């Protein structure tokens, strides 16, 4: 296909370097809006990648990156041979899959319910109420949970006693650590997660619903046959991005929930890196752990993206 035919078939596509320059001059303000985001990724995402080299060194701050001794894969060998490695990996994967199973669908369900509300004022009030927890830090969220779940005059335990049950030590019992973690995520993030799904639903042609109503379809059939298929691509993209964070379960949140009694079920890679890297000063080893997490996330995103394309979805690239 020659350039003339290509330009005719894809009129919006730039044909060469000159067209790009003209586009920048013509739409300079739009390109200028890209600069802050571009600088953010260059400064905070790409330039720090150079520091990954310390994962293959016995890094000493006073020697610097170029003066430290090269040790190859010694830190990775240590990581895989650590007695705690399988426990940490199991805990991290367990929390991730619990998050994926219980937390990921909630914003979709909440967005579907909000989309069915016809009173716009009431809908805005509900949206505001479910958005508010997102703007609270994990310190506040966990502190509120401590007040509610405390053995000493905690509201939940007071209600249990009033109902004739014994008090439950939610904070120190390892069996309650993971449910508490999941419930806190649902409370804090579900409302905020509805924004993208509501935006996707707003782009659905209303005539499809009109045609479905004429054919006798009720609300649930409209949701199943129109709404969900229309936002399927958005769900797939967000799911792919979620899979990329398979070993990222949130340091601050987990760290605030950990204590001596639940550490066995709550210790994850993020908290392990904090202890090894900052508290014990093992910078190279903690960099190796972080590098391992990044590689696993990249592999899973590429595999999930390939699988989604096999099923006819667009994917993320």
From TrEMBL:
Membrane-related topology note: Multi-pass membrane protein
Alphabetical keyword list: Membrane, Transmembrane, Transmembrane helix, Transport
Record-linked Pfam families: BPD_transp_1
Subcellular location, record wording: Cell membrane; Membrane
GO terms for biological process, alphabetical: transmembrane transport
Transmembrane stretches, start-end: 29-56, 88-114, 126-149, 283-307
Domain of life: Bacteria
GO cellular component, one term: plasma membrane
All residue ranges annotated as the ABC transmembrane type-1 domain in the record: 89-304
Primary residence: membrane
Family in the record: Belongs to the binding-protein-dependent transport system permease family.
Protein name per its UniProtKB record: Sugar ABC transporter permease
Organism: Cohnella thailandensis
């Amino acid at each position: 296909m020659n350039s003339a035919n290509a330009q005719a078939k894809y009129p919006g596509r730039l044909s060469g370097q000159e067209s790009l320059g003209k586009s920048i001059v013509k739409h300079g303000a739009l390109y200028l809006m890209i600069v802050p985001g571009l600088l953010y990724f260059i400064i905070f995402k790409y330039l720090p990648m150079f520091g990954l080299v310390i994962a293959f060194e016995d890094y000493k701050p006073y020697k610097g990156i170029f003066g430290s001794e090269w040790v190859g894969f010694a830190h990775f060998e240590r990581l895989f041979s650590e007695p705690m490695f399988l426990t940490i990996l199991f805990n991290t994967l367990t929390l991730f899959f619990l998050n994926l199973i219980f937390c990921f669908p909630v914003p979709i369900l909440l967005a579907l319910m909000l989309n069915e509300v016809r009173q716009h004022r009431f809908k805005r009030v509900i949206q505001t109420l479910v958005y508010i927890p997102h703007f609270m830090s994990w310190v506040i969220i966990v502190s509120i949970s401590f007040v509610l779940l405390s053995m000493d005059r905690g509201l939940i335990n007071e209600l249990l006693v009033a109902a004739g049950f014994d008090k439950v030590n939610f904070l120190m019992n390892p069996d309650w650590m993971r449910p508490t973690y999941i419930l806190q995520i649902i409370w804090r993030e579900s409302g905020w997660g509805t924004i993208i799904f509501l935006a996707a639903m707003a782009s659905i042609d209303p005539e499809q619903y009109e045609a479905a109503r004429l054919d006798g379809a009720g609300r649930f059939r409209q949701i199943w046959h129109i709404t969900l298929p229309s936002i399927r691509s958005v769900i797939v993209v967000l799911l792919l991005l979620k899979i990329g964070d398979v070993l990222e379960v949130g340091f601050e949140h987990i760290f605030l929930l950990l204590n001596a009694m639940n550490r066995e079920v709550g210790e994850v890679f993020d908290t392990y890196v904090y202890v090894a890297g900052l508290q014990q000063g093992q910078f190279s080893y903690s960099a190796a752990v972080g590098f391992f997490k990044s590689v696993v996330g990249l592999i899973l995103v590429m595999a999930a993206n390939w699988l989604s394309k096999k099923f006819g979805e667009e994917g993320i690239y």
